Amino acid sequence: MTTYLIIGVLGLLLLLVSLVVGDLLDGALDALAGDTFSSAVIGAFLSALGFGGALAEGLGAPLLVSAPAGVAAGVGFGWFAAWLTRLLRDDTSGTSPRTDDTVGREAVVLTAIPADGYGTVKVLVGGHEMRLNARLDTDHPIPVEPGTRVHVTSTVSPTAVTVAPTWRELG
Question: Which sequence ranges are marked TM in the entry (predicted)?
Answer without folding.
Answer: 38-56, 63-84
